[in-house]
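Milestone M4 deliverable, item 7.
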Amino acid sequence: MKKGLIVLGAVVGLALIVFMMYRGSYNTAVNLQENVDEKWGDVGATYQRRADLIPQLVATVKGAAANEKGILTQVTEARAGIVNAKTPEDMDLMGKKINTAINLAFEAYPQIRSTQNFSDLQTQLEGTENRIAVARQNYNGAVKEYNSHIRGFFNSMFLNKETFPKKDAFKESAGSENAPKVDFETK
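Output delivered:
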């Protein structure tokens, strides 16, 4: 009788150990799977940030550049008028026109900032692409951790492959290994 209780106790103990291993493995797999989904959501949120931000920045830079182009055109035309002046009175009149054009230009837009705006845009583009790269790397790290867990020896026996399928890491677009061509020609 004592032997039967010992064997029964051992079987119950072993079943309890197996159950605890399964429960721990299952809960860890759930947490890792949720982490993968969260990291992919972060990638999507970063893409959305880019889609929302970049067109607004480009429109702002274009608007400022168009405004400055108008200002510089006015100042240049006024300066060109001085060259054509024939008399001191013409020079005086053209000088007043230049001063008026410059004053109006700087009242309308006190500081020429196109170069700074383009630099700021470049910084925002670089920062946005860096955020995307970090989000993708974090996603790939979460996928690796998850896949390593579900494919482990004991875990692969306990976990249902339909509930916990292997996840794919971020895949680059075809041709993205080639550097893009930068072209500043206006058409």
